[in-house]
């Protein structure tokens, strides 16, 4: 592959956020590149050849044409350099072997101005959150040592993984730390936030959270008794046995269980150690005059052009080191702009075909989703399936129904009794709808759901229903049983 093709493929598979970072690095490393600000004059010249006009695509929205990256070729013609830049480099050569890449412009580790924390910072971990509370609590040095050890033994869910006896054995015998001292410090930690932290099992976790509720909470005493003595019956959903043991009526038991269900069985999950991931849509789909329009998100990627002032400094016959450097920077800038334009055009073609194929989803929702595979889009746009796979990975579409990754619109199919096809996404939506409308006392089994789907003409095996149900995060019927 030529270096141009390598760069185009690399930019094609980048997400919008990664592409923004790549563009920023290119702007910082290449003086020939600059942002196209609003209101600046620019023409529509092909960035790879002076004087050639860009080809317009008649089936693309006008907003896409306006968001395409641009360059100012007139400034190049007015300058001293009129040499035509070759459009290709030798095959199987690397881009880094010919031109300086933006990655090489990154500062080294010994650069004092490089902000390491801005590139490596993450959210607060559960251990650091607990240690912060431990440092605020007044205690002796020995108790603080015990507390630090206990916190190290708490997993991400908030549970103490080691037994107290094992923790005592881990200390130096010369310290003379005994089991009751460790237990006292553990009780201190169990009063930290989030509620339920440091528990040794689910029963203790629920009891710790119930103890921190206001004393006037309805059914608090009964909920504490249920968590302490009858948690196994609740797990097996043996409601009749629970009502007999606790001597409560069905409506009272329902309120007690609702209080239990308000608790968090994984209290440590409230402290998120990883940074949040942001999604920026690449394309926007909207309906106008009964037509679905596809537009590039103009705010996601800045428009670029070649700086005409610096480009005018390049001299045709000058072979000095400075002129060679500037000529290489100009070539790299123009190829970078061309790669961005190619990325935008490919993304628009694929997104337009997806919208054309999935109009039913945009109009009526998931149940109207049609089967779609990569080969269908590749055949429609005249590209290889691998290219379609790159385009649809980490690229997002903003629709009136929400923001979806382009891969979301692809799904396999299941045959119907009438000889048609139904997508797996539509079947999942139907299963979700059936479960939401079921009787909580008598939830639908997988076999029953398969029968209901067959009644609608959709032929799905019970094991397929189970697979789709699990992918939706829906528990089996035995675990969905609830009191009214």
From TrEMBL:
Do you know which InterPro entries this protein is assigned to? RNA_pol_sigma_54, RNA_pol_sigma_54_core-bd, RNA_pol_sigma_54_DNA-bd, RpoN_core-bd_sf
Q: Which domain of life is it from?
A: Bacteria
Please indicate if the UniProt record lists DNA-binding as a keyword: yes
Q: Which residues form the RNA polymerase sigma factor 54 DNA-binding domain?
A: 324-482
Recorded source organism is: Metapseudomonas resinovorans NBRC 106553
The residue ranges of the RNA polymerase sigma factor 54 core-binding domain are 117-310
User: Which protein, by its recorded name, is this?
Assistant: RNA polymerase sigma-54 factor
Gene Ontology terms: biological process: DNA-templated transcription initiation
Pfam families, alphabetically?
A: Sigma54_AID, Sigma54_CBD, Sigma54_DBD
MF terms (GO), sorted A to Z: DNA-binding transcription activator activity; nucleotidyltransferase activity; sigma factor activity; transcription cis-regulatory region binding
NCBIfam families reported for this sequence: PRK05932.1-2, PRK12469.1, rpoN_sigma
- Spell out the residue ranges making up region: Disordered: 27-87
List GO terms (cellular component aspect): DNA-directed RNA polymerase complex; protein-DNA complex
Biased region (Low complexity) positions are 51-65
